[in-house]
Automatic annotation (TrEMBL):
Pathway membership: Antibiotic biosynthesis; mycinamicin biosynthesis
GO MF annotation list: heme binding; iron ion binding; monooxygenase activity; oxidoreductase activity, acting on paired donors, with incorporation or reduction of molecular oxygen
Protein name, entry field: Cytochrome P450
Gene3D superfamilies reported in the protein's UniProt record: Cytochrome P450 (1.10.630.10)
Annotated family: Belongs to the cytochrome P450 family.
Length: 412
């Protein structure tokens, strides 16, 4: 295959039309060769069945860039970024991936995470108390609710002092802004040198934190991971640092955007908002439907073909980059009747918003609990919650990987 399509997918305007762009690609060919805004030619997998089989086949499609095409090299990354994320669980394949995942999996089982629900509820209630106390009956749902909720949950879970939360938010945003598909400039107009200085500071902070946790373990996840054993082996300091960085990068923006996307989806579908208000017991299924409808992660990590192969009959050459478009697969009419309709009572909703296969989201049980608590609490305690801005001009963040809002003014 030599020709590549060049759809506009990253600009802010393109965010609103992205689902149509994906549908056009999927209808023409669920495995299409596309030139990314980064200039790179990749295969985009937009069909549900094709995406599922691609994500679950780690023998043929590797996450680690060890099989790049001739002449192409992995981009050289600054040393601090390599320390934080190079070779972390998200970018290695089994058996190394299996080993790392086993050391942390226990803290993220649905049973374990269910025990965190009362704490998540308490954090959410405190946030809502603060909002209800305000004189003006309006707030920014993103900045005042969707950001602090996962930030507080994650800081408490990891055992990070609450006073340092804002630094974690900044570090997580800075790392996300380095993603070549993010199209997001660094927050607060920081220069590249300032960004790097902050990322180096993040490394120093984590090094010191890990030493403290090793010396005086507490009842938190970092201490737990430091002591966890699999096959008689423990995580090294370096592995622990990468794991914490991965959790911070993977767990904050995603959950924040889930909350914003859910509220937007319900505002745009008032019948569904009414239904959820009348029947809060529908919340677990409603969250799954909103993950399918507006999942906060639009594309998978890139994979590389380990051999000359095919997906859905389309030949792929060894080394070529393949990306699963989760947002497109989750609106495949071959899988879902009326895929563009939000239906919180939808059944058989095995969406791909958390991926599938070996790298399927580690934090999914936690994100589900946070999503359920956030939406039921907002609806119950602010029964008149409504948008205070036009929903036609929704400020989606630019970029391809994350789908989320930069702000959403609401009244109650
Ligand atoms: C709604 C919120 C979230 C969504 C939509 C989401 C989505 C995803 C997806 C799609 C992947 C797999 C990517 C691929 O295979 O290419 C993934 C992996 C991952 N996620 Fe999440 N995530 C969310 C929340 C979280 C949270 C709260 C945490 C941590 C507390 C987390 C930690 C991770 C980690 C560590 C991985 C890598 C797993 C591995 O490589 O084995 N995520 N996530």
């Amino acid at each position: 295959m030599t020709t590549s399509e060049q759809p506009d997918l990253m600009s802010q305007a393109a965010r609103e039309t992205a689902y149509d762009t994906y549908a056009a690609l999927r209808d023409t060919n669920p495995v299409s060769r596309v030139r990314m805004p980064t200039g790179q030619d990749v295969w985009l997998v937009t069909g549900y069945d094709e995406c599922t089989s691609f994500l679950t086949d780690y023998h043929r499609f590797k996450t680690s860039p060890t099989v790049m095409p001739e002449g192409m090299e992995a981009p050289a990354l600054p040393e601090a970024v390599v320390r934080l994320l190079g070779g972390s669980m998200g970018s290695v394949d089994p058996p190394e991936h299996t080993r790392q995942r086993r050391l942390v999996q226990q803290a993220f089982t649905p049973q374990y995470v269910e025990r965190l629900r009362p704490g998540v509820q308490q954090i959410t209630d405190q946030l809502v108390d603060g909002l209800l106390d305000r004189e003006e009956r309006t707030f920014d749902l993103v900045e005042d609710f969707a950001v602090p909720l996962p930030l507080t949950v994650m800081s408490d879970m990891l055992g990070i002092p609450r006073a340092d939360r804002d630094r974690f938010r900044l570090w997580s945003e800075l790392l996300l802004s380095l993603d070549p598909t993010s199209a997001q400039s660094a927050p607060q107009g920081m220069s590249p040198a300032e960004v790097m200085a902050e990322i180096e500071e993040f490394v120093r902070y984590l090094d010191a934190l890990i030493q403290r946790k090793r010396a005086e373990p507490g009842d938190d996840l970092i201490s737990g991971m430091a002591l966890a054993e699999a096959d008689g082996e423990r995580m090294s300091d370096d592995e622990l640092l990468k794991m914490v960085a991965l959790l911070v990068v993977g767990g904050l923006g995603t959950t924040q955007h889930l909350i914003g996307n859910m509220v937007l989806a319900l505002f745009r579908n008032p019948d569904q908002l009414r239904l959820l208000r009348d029947k809060p017991e529908l919340a677990p299924g409603a969250v799954e439907e909103m993950l399918r409808y507006h999942g906060p992660i639009e594309i998978s990590f890139p994979r590389f073909a380990a051999e000359d192969t095919e997906i859905g009959g389309v030949p792929i050459s060894r080394g070529e980059m393949v990306i699963g478009v989760l947002a497109a697969a989750d609106r495949d009419p071959g899988r879902y009747p009326e895929p563009d309709r939000l239906d919180i009572e939808r059944t058989a909703n095995r969406h791909l918003a958390f991926g599938r296969g070996a790298h399927m989201c580690l934090g999914a049980p936690l994100a589900r609990v946070e999503g359920q608590v956030a939406i039921t609490t907002l609806i119950a305690r602010m029964p008149d919650l409504r948008p205070a801005q036009s929903l036609d001009e929704t400020p989606w963040r630019p970029g391809l990987t994350l789908r989320g809002l930069t702000a959403l003014t609401v009244e109650f």
